[in-house]
Specification:
Elements (H helix, E strand, L loop, with lengths): L6 H22 L3 E6 L4 E4 L1 H7 L3 H4 L4 H5 L4 H10 L8 E8 L5 E12 L5 E10 L1 H22 L17 E2 L5 E2 L1 H8 L10 H7 L10
Antiparallel strand pairs: 1-2, 1-5, 3-4, 4-5, 6-7
């Protein structure tokens, strides 16, 4: 069967369209996208990560992904993937700090996907990242507020357990066996403060001349 003369241009046009279409998506998406070879070296990165991190494609192509974009302990787990690179290990997700060219500390949540060749071996790894710096900052602020709240609660004095109190004079026996006024004991074991007054029953008993039946 002979191939028609116009088949090749049509195939080339389709391939060119697909390549341009994928390149357009790569450059316009807000996600951070990096294409790696089977050794972990950068082959391609999109405009989003250039803008976020300040590392251009000319500076990063051919360098190992972890040498440029992974700054801390998270890199050991990612590098281990390339020691035994197999399709079943993907997708692989992790989050890592990223230091921009300007020295800013950013946080990125990465999802990696393997692209296998005809032999079934991994030929390319695509790392897609999302900037979660704002989320990390919010988490840090929440942890700080929780720590402050825990410190405040730890300093709150609370009366607990049985309190031995005299049935007659209402003094309280402290841990050392001394009988203390209620005001002293409560003030020492809590944040409460006292203001003094006199109840109607005591007013009638102690100062009957000042007691008003209509207000009792």
């Amino acid at each position: 069967m002979t191939q028609r003369a116009d088949d090749q241009p049509t195939a080339d046009s389709t391939l060119r369209f697909e390549r341009n279409f994928l390149a357009g998506i790569l450059e316009t998406t807000g996600a951070l996208i990096i294409v790696l070879d089977a050794e972990g070296r950068v082959l391609r990165l999109n405009r989003a990560i250039e803008k976020l991190a300040g590392h251009t494609i000319l500076e990063t192509v051919g360098r190992f992904f972890w040498d440029v974009f992974l700054a801390d302990a998270e890199l050991s787990g990612f590098r281990a993937l390339f020691d035994d690179l197999r399709p079943e290990h993907f997708p692989f997700e992790f989050q890592s700090p990223l230091e921009s060219r300007d020295g800013d500390r950013l946080w990125v949540y990465w999802t990696t996907t393997a692209i296998a060749g005809e032999s079934g071996a991994v030929e390319f790894v695509v790392a897609t990242g999302v900037d979660i710096t704002a989320l990390k900052q919010a988490e840090s602020e929440m942890e700080r507020l929780i720590a402050q709240l825990q410190d405040a609660l730890a300093n709150v004095k609370t009366l607990r357990g049985l309190v031995p109190i005299c049935a007659n004079c209402k003094k309280i026996r402290d841990d050392h066996g001394y009988w203390r006024l209620v005001e002293e004991y409560v003030r020492e074991h809590s944040e409460a403060e006292f203001s003094h007054g006199i109840c109607p029953a005591c007013l009638k008993q102690l100062y009957p001349e000042y007691y008003d039946e209509t207000k009792g």
